[in-house]
Amino acid sequence: MVALAVGCHPDDIEFMMSGTLFLLREAGWELHYLNVANGSCGTDRYRTEEIVRIRKGQAEAAASILGAVFHESLVNDLGVFYEQETIRRVTALVREVKPNIILTQSLEDYMEDHMNTARVAVTAAFCRGMLNYHSIPEHPPWGGDLMVYHATPHTLTDSMRRVIVPEMFVNVTSVLSRKRHMLAAHASQKKWLDHSQGFDSYLTTMEDVAAAGGRLSGRYPYAEGWRRHSRVGFTARDGNPLAEALGSPVAMGA
């Protein structure tokens, strides 16, 4: 069984998805890790080439902690658009990896890069089996079943401050320390996020978000929330392979 995580910037997977991914790893799944953007704007100290090099190394270290296959980023920060080249490149990865599930960002979030990443991931998954849709690089079509899951947005609300209530919650309490360790690999982000977005500590903020997810679940101390995309065009069977893989650490919402 294979899971492909498609995040936006280096550290987005860590913030919103990594607990679920650690549990999938424990269940024997093969994991793949893609940040669509390379983190080029996540600094107030370094020029583009230097911060891209730094953040690639940190992302590779994070993927190694997770035990995931690392895939190169595709564009600069604020360069994630819903356009053909990026879609074709992510389609190539979907065709190569052949995932059973894709974990990606919310279609509603506080910034366009995150939402565009979700849209690109969905379309790439939808196009995976189309004979006349050509990926970059070229890979033969693959029409296997997959389910796309959307994480909650970073603030647990959309850009208009409305709460996004997940369909299901994954209890990540048992892997919270590993989630924190994976996020800590992105050491260049501590000062930047604390300064630019008002975080007291990006590690504490991650735990606060997971605790807020736990409160939304009504069951768990720490949780990551997920919503399934429509199955139409993705899988013939309207199941829930993530819940089936993880079993008891999952609770369905109202």
Find the structural class using helix and strand composition: alpha/beta
In the CATH scheme, the class would be: Alpha Beta
Q: Which percent range describes the beta-strand content?
A: 5-15%
CATH superfamily membership, which one?
LmbE-like
Largest sheet: 8 strands, mixed
Between the first and last Cα atoms, what is the distance in angstroms?
28 Å
Overall pLDDT score = 94
Helix and strand run: EHHEHEHEHEEHHHEHE
Measured on Cα atoms, how large is the radius of gyration? 17 Å
Using the 3D structure, state the CATH architecture.
3-Layer(aba) Sandwich
Arrangement of strands in the largest sheet: 3-2-1-4-5-7-6-8
Domain count? 1
Shape: globular
Count of DSSP H/I helices: 9
Q: According to CATH, what is the topology? A: Rossmann fold
What share of the residues lie within helices?
40-55%
Low-confidence stretches are none
The total strand number stands at: 8
Descriptive overview:
The structure is a single chain. With 254 residues, this protein is α/β, with parallel strands linked by helices. It has one domain (2-252): 3-Layer(aba) Sandwich (Rossmann fold), CATH 3.40.50. The protein is 40% helix and 15% strand. It has an eight-stranded mixed sheet, sandwiched between helices. The radius of gyration is 17 Å and the shape is globular. The mean pLDDT is 94.
Q: What's the quick description here?
A:
It is built from nine helices and eight strands. It is of the alpha/beta class and 254 residues long. The longest helix has 19 residues, at 48-66.
Record the SSE blueprint.
Elements lengths: L1 E6 L4 H5 L1 H9 L3 E6 L12 H19 L2 E3 L12 H14 L3 E4 L7 H15 L20 E5 L16 E4 L4 H9 L4 H9 L4 H16 L5 E6 L12 H6 L3 E3 L2
Parallel strand pairs: 1-2, 1-4, 2-3, 4-5
Antiparallel strand pairs: 5-7, 6-7, 6-8
Helix pairs in contact: 3-6, 4-5
